[in-house]
Amino acid sequence: MELDFIFSIIILIMSVVIHEVSHGYMAYAFGDSTAKLARRLTLNPLKHLDMMGSIVVPTIAFITTGFIFGWAKPVPYNPYNLKNARYAEPLVAFAGPLSNFFVATVFGLLIRFDVFSDSLIPAAGLIVLINIILGVFNMIPIPPLDGSKVLFGILPYQLRGVKYFLETHWFWILLVFIFFLWKFVTPIVGAIFYLLTGLNF
């Protein structure tokens, strides 16, 4: 139990670090050096740890549900420095979840094609599962999640009222989603996991 928890925390921390660094590199690719100047374009977890999101919340989630979830300190970027900001902002937002789906895909396919020994499959499967959960959850279009920034970037001006509503009531909407609607997303996570690994979780 303790080893499972410690290993899960390590996987989560590295996964959220990759997620945040991906935001920073995408912003850097579009001309914003904020993350680079803040020395946040690094995989060193000490630069990214958030006590609440990287330790407290994952611990509570693991104890109460058996699943683990959390976040790191957001990598800073300045949207005013971005070239082609209309397209760059949603791409910067999407880079985080995309990195998690990429990690999940790599390890999932390694499992599917029997690259790992049987003793390593549970660990690799946990890497896949955590990254799928992070990717799917962050693509939900509710602020402050990345999916909201992607949505706002492609939302027609005529629907700006949707943006205002979500930005005004995001806290309660997110709570309702987590406690009452996430159970409908879990089958999607399971389907992606099976698609990548050929296994049920």
What would you note in describing this structure?
By secondary structure, the protein is mainly alpha-helical. It has one domain. The protein is built from seven helices and no strands. The mean pLDDT is 89.
In short:
This protein has helices spanning 2-29, 34-37, 51-65, 85-112, 121-138, 146-154, 160-197. By secondary structure, it is mostly helical.
What is the topology?
Layout: H1 2-29, H2 34-37, H3 51-65, H4 85-112, H5 121-138, H6 146-154, H7 160-197
Q: What distance separates the N and C termini? A: 17 Å
- The amount of helix comes to 55-70%
Cα-atom radius of gyration: 17 Å
Order of helices and strands: HHHHHHH
How many H/I helical runs? 7
Name a few traits of the molecule.
201 residues; 0% strand; mainly alpha
